[in-house]
Automatic annotation (TrEMBL):
CDD domains reported for this sequence: PolY_Pol_IV_kappa
GO biological process per UniProt: DNA repair; DNA-templated DNA replication; error-prone translesion synthesis; SOS response
Primary gene name: dinB
Gene3D superfamilies from the UniProt entry: 3.30.70.270, 3.40.1170.60, 5' to 3' exonuclease, C-terminal subdomain (1.10.150.20), DNA polymerase, Y-family, little finger domain (3.30.1490.100)
Keyword Nucleus on entry: no
Organism field: Microbacterium telephonicum
Name of the featured protein: DNA polymerase IV
Length: 398
């Protein structure tokens, strides 16, 4: 077990909104909402007024009528993310990306060359601010879990180091919602049992936590509450999947709306496959229902492919199969992943190649979008839609 605080959790603050404020000086200091129909991101000025991610656009404008609402610009966010991750990897080779705007960094081997973890974190924050123009919060701790909690507590635009000797004093008084894996449903159950702080959960025996919360969840959360998290920072040369997801808010969604969103996600992910010379063997649909429970559905293809039409057909089949659950329980998030990725040479040629199989359409669309931008061409089903539909919310980082 590590005895020194050498793990950094770096998390960009209100990422999408911060990019908008960076690029439009007139938005700085003002409440900014990214996304129209659903709030994809909110500046801290908007959050202070009660605006939250995944809130419906109408509700957000009611609680913050003077907010500036801007459409998402996914290309700008991806470009900013790449610049920030470049700084991460320039800081240490041990970088584990969690999403487009956050990562773990292990800096334990850099003390003699660069300085203490706290000094490294401070320099990283300064570089992101100076070179990319964005605020970032960093937590430094002995474990990944504690580093992530520390960065959240330090927000916005902060740096917090949790000394190994002060871990209990830092963690135990915090609300149980700070534990990695405690969502609204689990928090409500813990509150019903009279458990509101991490310390109260830590006081339980492990067997009691497992009985109350289920074996896997109870064991995991109890271990975190007892400061046990042996997971190292893991970096891989090549991801085995790519994906995106969209928060939908709480209002009912028709299957037609969900189909349009699915088309958008498939279009973007299929293009990313082709850009990287990859093919996909397994399509995975991820759903979060109105009661905050989650479901995952997958379909494996006979051969790996990068063709949009084939991948869309598989994704649509999974969505249709989940229709009864969606209609009875509601839906608040839809996501899609392409897993079991294959290299380009493993993707077989599809013959005969004609307009019916979509190969030429994919090639033409990619070329036009490369030259004139991602929004240069759009499907007819997207015309007239809310601007917030133009991009999935949280693409996984590669």
């Amino acid at each position: 077990m590590r005895n020194e605080a050498t793990v950094l959790h770096a998390d960009l603050d209100a990422f999408y909104a911060s990019v908008e404020q960076r690029d439009a000086p007139e938005l700085r200091g003002r409440p900014v909402i990214v996304g129209g129909g659903v709030v994809l991101a909110a500046s801290y000025e908007a959050k202070a007024r009660g605006v939250r991610t995944a809130m419906g656009g109408r509700q957000a404008r009611e609680v913050c009528p003077d907010a500036v609402v801007v459409p998402p610009r996914m290309d700008a966010y991806v470009e900013a993310s790449r610049a920030v991750f470049g700084i991460f990897r320039d800081t240490t080779p041990l970088v584990e990306g969690l999403s487009i705007d956050e990562a773990f960094l292990e800096v334990g081997g850099l003390r003699r060359l660069v300085g203490s973890p706290e000094l490294i974190a401070a320099r990283l924050r300064e570089r992101v601010r100076t070179e990319v123009g964005l605020p970032i919060s960093v937590g430094v701790a002995r474990t990944k879990f504690l580093a992530k909690v520390a960065s959240a507590v330090s927000k916005p635009d902060g740096l917090l180091v949790v000394d190994p000797d002060g871990e209990e004093d830092f963690l135990l008084p915090l609300p149980v919602e700070r534990l990695w894996g405690v969502g609204p449903v689990t928090a409500e159950e813990l509150h019903r049992l009279g458990i509101r702080t991490v310390g109260q959960l830590a006081e339980l025996e492990a067997s009691s936590a497992e009985r109350l919360l289920g074996r896997a969840a109870g064991a995991h959360l109890h271990a975190l509450a007892r400061l046990r998290d042996p997971r190292p920072v893991v970096t891989t040369a090549r991801r085995g999947s790519i994906g995106s997801q969209r928060a939908l808010g709480s209002r009912p969604r028709s299957m037609t709306e969900l189909d349009v969103m699915l088309i958008q996600i498939v279009d973007r992910l299929a293009r990313r496959l082709r850009d990287r010379g990859r093919g996909c063997r397994t399509v995975v649909l991820r759903l979060r229902f109105g009661d905050f429970s989650r479901a995952t559905r997958s379909r494996s293809l006979r051969l790996p492919t990068d063709r949009t039409a084939v991948l869309l057909a598989a994704a649509r089949g999974l969505l249709v199969a989940a229709r009864s659950e969606i209609e009875s329980r509601g839906i608040t998030l839809i996501g899609l992943s392409f897993a079991q990725l294959a290299r380009g040479e493993e993707v077989p040629e599809e013959l005969p190649i004609d307009w019916g199989d979509g190969a030429r359409i994919d090639t033409v669309f990619d070329a036009v979008r490369d030259r004139f931008g991602a929004d240069a061409l759009a499907r007819a089903t997207h015309l007239g839609r809310d601007p917030g539909w133009s991009a999935p919310q949280l693409p996984e980082h590669e």
